[in-house]
Specification:
binds iron/sulfur cluster; five-stranded mixed β-sheet; 11 helices; alpha+beta; binds FE2/S2 (inorganic) cluster
């Protein structure tokens, strides 16, 4: 089970058939009564807000719905993904669909996969004070402080690996006293790792060669000429990879491999 699924199970609401109680919440300072089992995202919609930005996958994957909230009797600022966090009575809620972050511009082909590259593009990593607020803010339970420490040490591979579950929600950056934009440091490391350090996947190389040699053109032309009903039949007859398939799983029909 992936960490994303784990997180979703921990916080997503259970469906309720019986009538639910209502709880008071505050959206941009205005009070609303909403069903107690709703996520913040559904509560916003229940209250009449139309979410055009700050709402994507609704499943804890896209990171679009970063939200800050606090309770009247607490000094603490809390953060979470609106689609994964269930409302609680008297939450004061503000969504931050976009957090402005420093974003370096680069051509990944021309970069060396080293710590010096990260340091040159994001020199502010050295301002980290090690407070751990980023780690405590992360809805994906990533040890953000740890990967920033690895970035400071110049360990590209470990930054890439330790940040793999990042959904780019920006909540870590929104709380950082050192004004780091942790997720942009992390994605730089993952790009450097993927482009320059990771072993090349032979099957991808073969697939690219097949495309370049136009191996699939005829089959695609035939599909394009098919009626919708026939296309559906072809689709339904496809062999689907089992959920728990071994890494070397291959379909019996290898025409498209
Ligand atoms: S919140 Fe900022 S300063 Fe604090 S540990 Fe994380 S990166 Fe460092
Ligand atoms: S590392 Fe930062 S941007 Fe990535 S998921 Fe965690 S809080 Fe969100
Ligand atoms: S809408 Fe995608 S993570 Fe919440």
């Amino acid at each position: 089970m992936s960490k994303t699924e784990t997180k979703a199970k921990k916080t997503a609401p259970k469906s309720k058939k019986k009538e639910e109680g209502l709880v008071p919440i505050f959206i941009m300072g205005k009070q609303y009564e909403v069903p107690e089992s709703l996520t913040i995202q559904k509560a916003l919609e229940y209250a009449g807000y139309l979410l055009i930005r700050g709402c994507g996958c609704r499943g804890g994957i896209c990171g679009a719905c970063g939200t800050v909230y606090r309770f009247p009797d607490s000094y603490r600022i809390e953060v979470g993904l609106a689609c994964q966090t269930v409302v609680q009575p008297n939450m004061y809620i503000a969504q931050i669909p976009f957090f402005p972050g420093n974003k370096a511009v680069y051509d990944i082909e021309k970069l060396e996969p080293t710590g010096s590259t990260i340091a040159a593009l994001y020199p502010e990593i050295f301002k980290c004070v090690g407070c751990g607020t980023c780690t405590r803010s992360c809805p994906m339970d990533i040890d953000v402080l740890s990967y920033i420490s690895k970035a400071i040490q110049g360990n590209v591979a470990e930054v890439a690996q330790n940040s793999f579950d990042c959904v780019m929600c920006g909540l870590c950056a929104s709380r950082c006293p050192a004004e780091e934009v942790q997720y942009n440091v992390a994605i730089l490391a993952r790009r450097l790792y993927a482009r320059h350090l990771a072993p090349k996947a032979k099957h991808v190389g073969k697939a690219v060669r097949n495309i370049e040699e136009k191996k699939f053109e005829q089959a695609l032309d035939e599909l394009k000429k098919m009626k919708v009903e026939d296309l559906k039949k072809v689709y339904k007859s496809l062999e689907i990879e089992p959920e728990m398939a071994e890494e070397d799983w291959e379909p019996k029909d290898k025409l498209c491999l």
